[in-house]
Amino acid sequence: MNDLTFDAVIIGAGVTGSAIARELSRYHMRLCVVEKEEDVCSGTSKANSAIVHAGHDALKGSLKARFNVEGNRMMEALSKELDFEFKRNGSLVVCFDEEDLPALHELYEKGVENGVQGLEILTGDQVREMEPNLADTITAALYSPEGGIVCPFGLNIALAENACDNGVEFIFNTKVIKVEKTSKGYDLTTNNGVIHTTYVINAAGVYADVFHNMVSENKLHITARKGDYLLLDKEAGSHVSHTIFQLPGKMGKGVLVTPTVDGNLLIGPTATDIEDKEGTNTTADDLASIIEKAVWGVKHVPFRQVITSFAGLRAHEDSDDFIIGEAEDADGFFDAAGIESPGLTSAPAIGVYVADLVAEKSGALKKENWNGTRKGIIDPQKLSIEERAQLIKEHPEYGMIICRCEGTSEGEIIDSINRTLGAVSLDGIKRRVRQGAGRCQAGFCTPRTMEILARESGMRMEDICKNAPGSNILTGEN
Questions:
Q1: Residue 44 CB coordination number (10 Å)
Q2: 3-class DSSP state for residue 314?
Q3: Contact 229, 309 (CB under 8 A)
Q4: DSSP secondary structure, 99-139, as one string
Q5: Is residue 250 predicted with pLDDT exceeding 60?
Q6: 280-284 long-range CB contacts below 8 Å, 24 or more apart?
Q7: Domains of the chain with CATH codes
Q8: Closest by Cα among 30, 93, 20, 23 to 56
Q9: Is 28 known to be catalytic?
Q10: What burial letters (b/e) apply to 70-104, b meaning 16+ CB within 10 Å?
Q11: Are 204 and 61 in contact (CB under 8 A)?
């Protein structure tokens, strides 16, 4: 990569950075997203609870409260515009002791203050009528019909694809090493050269404090907060229909149990502060803690149907709120930092807010031909029998099943590789079409998928990686 020049550079291709990129693509600006990994959605955004929070947790007046409620209200329309999975399944915050009822009522009042609609406090019997598998010890619950679930990969990828289709350049495998103020803006020194830009948007997740502190005397400190999860097979996906949170009480802070938009059951997370900003390894103790706490609220959880575990990192800033806006002492440097829960929910609203700030600062004009829609990858399983038969007649590759666990066809894999910002790794394909996401966890379909990726991309089989460069599947040695 030779030296490049842009009007604005976004650091980080997670859901926040991609949302900002999409909104900024409305304007006549030369824009770039620089990402250290090989694909979008490769950091915090790929490993979270996939919850669209209603907005009753955050303190009134906080940025978390504001953008949570705004983002929640945007999600349904956005899912239709960008064609990603979203379901408003509702959430329940359950409590186990009469002594905790004041805290539940406080959560209700906080939600009302934040503008959350439809909140109700239900008795234990009422909530067990809604969810028969809830524990007999539950005495009451806060019900929010505005709670939802989303595919975090689908949301992030859709935002990025739409941004790219509207002219935003994405540069992958490029790590920002240094950010320096210049007379014309900023120079970003990377492992692949220098990028010159007038404006910087810092959406770097757990590394956002590092870049902010390079240009500002008002220091930030972000702690990587690790959360471990258990994912259960689709046979367990209907064990609950709502997202079940546990009100912190005398037993401690519990974990959530929720269905996913893909039909699995997800349980977690833990919350462990760590020094390593890349420390996404799970531990036996944390996974045992998830199992112990899950049964407080939900009985008969079929833990024998766990198909995988994983961990993600949340970017917890010491102020316990989002840090969003132009740094006071760094003209043209905009932060979207400390984006932890409810960051996924808030991302669409943060994107609008930050893009408006940058556009106003730059004086950029809006495009007349901006396209805010995007069509996702065809899923033959969601078509009628007649539509599916016609699709396979015209494109036989959609009738060739590669991943038996998820029913993923060769046609879907081909599309995931060849579309805008297409997959270049096995994990990239998995995030787009769920190849390898089922109960065998890619045990059978990996070789055939590698053959398709090599054929469609021109890569050698030896060069195909699980995710980042260096994670090669084959060594090329006999």
A1: 26
A2: strand
A3: yes
A4: GGHHHHHHHHHHHHHHT--S-EEEEHHHHHHH-TTB-TT--
A5: no
A6: 280/47, 280/226, 280/310, 280/311, 280/312, 280/313, 281/311, 282/228, 282/309, 282/310, 282/311, 283/228
A7: 4-46+153-221+319-362 (3.50.50.60), 91-145+224-315 (3.30.9.10), 380-463 (1.10.10)
A8: 93
A9: no
A10: bbbbbbeebbeebbbbbbbbbbbbbbbeeebeeeb
A11: no
For residues 156 and 316, give the distance between their C-alpha atoms in angstroms, rounded to a whole number: 20
Give which of 283, 306, 289 is closest to 236, Cα–Cα: 306
Tokens of 346: 């808030």
Q: Based on the number of CB atoms within 10 Å of its own CB, is 321 exposed (0-12), middle (13-18) or buried (19 or more)? A: middle
Cα 403 to Cα 411: distance, rounded to the nearest angstrom? 12
Helices (H), 330-466: 343-362, 385-394, 410-418, 426-433, 446-457
Q: Mean of the pLDDT values across residues 86-109?
A: 96
Terminal Cα-to-Cα distance of the chain (whole angstroms): 34
* Average pLDDT of span 271-278: 95
Which one, of 289, 284, 298, 295, lies nearest residue 271 by Cα? 289
Nearest residue to 45 (alpha-carbon basis) of 143, 141, 135, 158:
158
CB 82 within 8 A of CB 374: yes
Q: pLDDT digit string (tens) for 4-25? A: 999 999 999 999 999 999 999 9
Calpha distance 206→7 (Å, rounded)? 25
CA nearest neighbour of 340 among 247, 441, 224: 224
Catalytic entry in 53, 56, 212, 242: 53
DSSP string for 184-235: TEEEEEETTEEEEEEEEEE--GGGHHHHHHHH-SS---EEEEEEEEEEE-GG
The answer to whether the Cα torsion of 104, 108, 114, 117 is positive or negative is: positive
Note the pLDDT of residue 288.
97
Chain mean position to CA 453: 24
Confidence of residue 3 (pLDDT cuts 50, 70, 90): confident
Read off the pLDDT of residues 99-123 as tens digits, 9 standing for 90 and up. Answer: 999 999 999 999 999 999 999 999 9
* CB count in 10 Å sphere of residue 364: 18
| CA–CA separation, 439 and 227 (whole Å) | 22
Helix, strand or coil for residue 157? helix
**Ordered alpha helix ranges (H), 245-339:** 284-297
pLDDT tens for 368-393 read: 999 999 999 999 999 999 999 999 99
* Residue 244 β-bridge partners: 92, 257
Pairing of the two strands 31-34 and 408-409:
unpaired
Amino acid at 442: A
